[in-house]
Amino acid sequence: MGSAHDPGDLVQAFEFQIPYNFNSRNPAVEFAAEDYHSVDCKPFVCEFPSLDVYLRSKTCPMSTNGFLVPNTPMVHIHIAVFDKLTVIGVTSSQVMFDVVGTQTLLCAWTRLLAGENVDAIRGMDWDVALFESFRGLLVPLVQSWMRGPEVRKLIRVPKAFLEELKREIMLDLKLKGLSERVDIYNVLLAWWLKISYSVCKCGDKTPIHVHRPVNLRPMCIFPGDSTLTHPYINNASSTIPLPPLAISAFQTEPLGKLALRIWHAITLYHTDLRTIQAELCWLN
To answer: What InterPro entries does the annotation carry (predicted)?
Structure first.
């Protein structure tokens, strides 16, 4: 690969020479991975971290000139593995992909990993008209006026903390002679709702409608009452509506009672597959 430009020009012109064949010395894609283990046991709030270290490896080029170095792969895939989270970063030169092109690459990649024939994977349609509404300065200018300043914070809730809350709730249910149960995800949502609305005015009766995401792929609601087995990069998803509660209820109800409300709503949702099918037909 190389670059060339006229010293008198303000704009540099780059020339990328991509080989027809790749080998171990000159790979098409470079893969890298790092493991990160958690040592925290309590929730905490912090500034949103820079994600560069999790999205790029140390060998990944940081500029166009870096991609021009001979035998440098044009696509770099870096995987950062946490205890409960995996971050996949894909980096390439802008001459290779835009955002839509990168999405197409990832979609094809995941379908190949699932065993599909590459010739059966449909490519991306070229339709510039889809982006015409984003042209000009008016749209971003209006958006900048309407949007308030953004303050980003990261809230980390360790699994060990949630497991202890769940254990306490399950023990309380057992002492009350109840055979019901909650899972760690119900506890997390209930805990977050209590934290979020604890700063509101006491006694506020404003109803809050909460929708919990749900993965539809394993549910027997597709043609022939089957699950969705076709490989896609995005899951087919919907939301489970929880019965509305006043803000004051989030402030006063015990954590276990809120978690149990969520559990009941989820259980009821999964027992009525025909209603889910009808809802999806209406949405589509």
So the answer is: CAT-like_dom_sf
> What gap in Å lies between CA 221 and CA 281, rounded to an integer?
11
Residue 75 has pLDDT above 60, yes or no: yes
Structure tokens given for 5: 């430009």
Question: How distant is the alpha carbon of residue 176 from its chain centre?
Answer: 38
| Three-class secondary structure of residue 37 per DSSP | coil
Domains and their CATH numbers in the chain: 2-123 (no CATH), 157-283 (3.30.559.10)
Per residue in 149-172, pLDDT tens?
777 788 888 888 999 999 999 999
pLDDT of residue 105: 73
pLDDT, tens digit, for every residue of 211-257? 998 888 888 988 888 888 776 645 678 889 999 999 999 999 999 99
Query: What does DSSP assign to residue 49?
Result: P
If one counts every other C-beta atom within 10 angstroms of the C-beta of residue 116, the result is 14
Q: Mapping DSSP to helix (H, G, I), strand (E, B) and coil, where does residue 277 land? A: helix
Q: The tokens of 262 are what? A: 């969520």
Q: What pLDDT score was predicted for residue 83?
A: 77
Residues in Cβ contact with 208 at an 8 Å cutoff, skipping those fewer than 6 apart: 193, 197, 244, 245, 246, 247, 250
Query: How distant is the alpha carbon of residue 220 from its chain centre?
Result: 24
